[in-house]
Amino acid sequence: MDNLLAELQEIFRDIFDDDSLVLTRESSAATIDDWDSLTHTNLVTAIEKRYKVRFALGELQELKNVGDMIDLIQKKLAAK
Fold it and tell me: Could you tell me the pTM of the whole model?
């Protein structure tokens, strides 16, 4: 899990162009400046490419924070 968080942190730093960004499982759009609909779309696309998974719109709407995203990625990877 820690490895996945570290990998996601790199993706987030790239998308937000902020090398000082530190992610936690509790990080969310409410706690990260500039997280809007465009950056959200870019994040989802980058994560899907990195892990070779696809998210359904309903799955994404249920996510409340980065921890939920990690759990969903792990579930998708385990199902491969």
Answer: 0.92
